[in-house]
């Protein structure tokens, strides 16, 4: 009797173990290293829309002039076919670039997160195609269920056009796109369907601010030492993808550049007394007529903006105070920010500016800085 009981226990344990093993086998983390990213370009040789995972096959040319044959895992074949994926879209001979996570075991295998075709078309694992093989871009919900503007998702700036060097001792920097006269919308805001726009930043330093920049050199730039600069400068720097996660109580922003993480507290009406100073500071926010107004204090001394020269560089003390106003375009695809910077220690008056970022399907990736500038 005891022997039969033990046998039943062992058999039950085996039944539990089998599905767990199966799940681990198909899990992404088990087969692929998601902490790393590979980008491979090559020519398609095959596409297999099978279950449980579809695969795209392509050949690349290695450093020795030979051929490496890759295969990268996609989603479930049945789901992809329902989304309009066909062998015609991935015809043999087409050039593609695959961005994904490398296999832990096989050198020429990956988990594809994004595929870029030679004509610039970019898709991810959730993309849908129409009957003509064109990518369908679904309309983005502009508001959440409670009517709050939807700023969830990934955002990236477009490369701005610079209109010239900053002039004179006034330290005025101009970062401009094409500032064409535009018709305002119903809220009095200009439409945001053009390139990124930055207004003129008029900067006048106090005597203490000027002294803080004495001896400043290019090597002092924080980004050259894998350090973030500020929530203003790093938001659009290098056109990296930023990520926003929005809830009723708070909004979390992960910066693509130097991986600054901000929490905007919507459930607080004032800043606490015991703030631990940081580059991101402490932010409280509220929605006013569809505009997110964010008030931030509690900064570490550093720089609001850094350029390779003193001209245009803005130092900050621990008295830095920044107010940002975020608003979304009517189509939900552009996030506009206006900001005002005050620092009674280093700045005379305030500094104002603005910028745009665009909604993107591109993946957010931690920066993982490994600067080799000063490698011996």
Describe this protein with a few key phrases.
globular; OB fold (Dihydrolipoamide Acetyltransferase, E2P); five-stranded mixed β-barrel; 376 residues; nine-stranded mixed β-barrel; disordered N terminus; single chain; 4 helices; 11% helix
Walk me through this protein's architecture.
This protein is mainly β. It has two domains: 31-136, OB fold (Dihydrolipoamide Acetyltransferase, E2P); 153-360, no CATH class. 11% of the residues lie in helices and 32% in strands. It is built from four helices and 21 strands. The chain has helices spanning 2-26, 28-31, 77-82, 207-212; strands spanning 38-48, 55-61, 67-73, 95-102, 109-117, 122-124, 128-129, 135-136, 153-156, 173-174, 200-201, 242-246, 250-254, 261-265, 282-288, 291-297, 302-305, 314-316, 321-328, 334-342, 350-360. A hairpin with a 5-residue loop joins strand 19 and strand 20 (334-342). The radius of gyration is 26 Å and the shape is globular.
List the helices and strands and how they pair.
Layout: H1 2-26, H2 28-31, E1 38-48, E2 55-61, E3 67-73, H3 77-82, E4 95-102, E5 109-117, E6 122-124, E7 128-129, E8 135-136, E9 153-156, E10 173-174, E11 200-201, H4 207-212, E12 242-246, E13 250-254, E14 261-265, E15 282-288, E16 291-297, E17 302-305, E18 314-316, E19 321-328, E20 334-342, E21 350-360
Parallel strand pairs: 3-5, 14-15
Antiparallel strand pairs: 1-2, 1-4, 2-3, 4-5, 5-6, 7-8, 9-12, 9-21, 10-11, 12-13, 13-14, 15-16, 16-19, 17-18, 19-20, 20-21
